[in-house]
Amino acid sequence: MTGATNPLFRRSGVRIWLFRLYLHWYFYRRFHAVRISRSGMPAAAAGRPVIVYSNHPSWWDPATFILVSPKLFPGRLGFGPIDRKSLGQYRLLERMGAFGVPQDDPRSGAIFLRTCLALLARPNAILWITAEGGFTDPRARPVALRPGLAHLARRMPGALILPLALEYSFWNESQPEVLLRFGPPVEPGGCTTVPQWTERLEAALTQTMDALAAESVTRNPGLFHPLLRGGAGVGGIYDWYRRVRALVTRRRFDPSHEGRQ
Question: What's the whole-model pTM score?
Fold first, then answer.
């Protein structure tokens, strides 16, 4: 890779820091909270390169990765593949560590693998991969992953490979919750071929998604650790009226439906 195409050179630490500030404000306005399962925290990386692969339920996924990466993997340089056509629409993501992979090019698999291997040569690198390729409902089964991840896993026996389940769920507030849960690291366990790796990776992600779904349906915030608390309430004139009424009656104003957890 040349300097013009190498994600290491395109990535801008200053712009990422500024963009994360913006994301904190943006997520605060759009979501009630960003939560990670207390029983699904990521395993310690211990100086190894990390590959996080997830389901792909929403347009929000790359922004979620950028937001939570420093909270869960401090000091890591984050990167992730994205369809080259989509990257053309969101050029700013290049400065966030995203690199384009052409979906309609027979060389796309080789481009993906070559770029990922170069990045993971750095022990402080972390890859965030939406491994289903296209948007997929988190309840859809069976989980099907694109083959590039299995090729990468077979070539990177020293990497920490973590399945990540994502959901964007409405609970009891007007805004949705961002829910995350990591599964145990995926170990080779005798896998030598791409089909074997694919089967193992799909099974691990399926189990993680099922576990998150079981927690999500409880609507119990106690099962989750809040990474970011967002807004609450209806907003607009009605919340303004409630705030004034609380001030007049000398009561604490809480805009949430059930009280802050």
Answer: 0.85
Q: What pLDDT sits at residue 240? A: 47
| Residue 79, Cβ density class (10 Å: 0-12 exposed, 13-18 middle, ≥19 buried) | buried
Parse the chain into domains and list their residue ranges.
Answer: 7-230, 233-261
CATH of 7-230, one of 3.40.1130, 3.30.870, 1.10.12, 3.30.1340: 3.40.1130
Q: Is the pLDDT of residue 138 over 80?
A: yes
Q: Which of 222, 203, 223, 201 is nearest to 212 (CA)?
A: 223
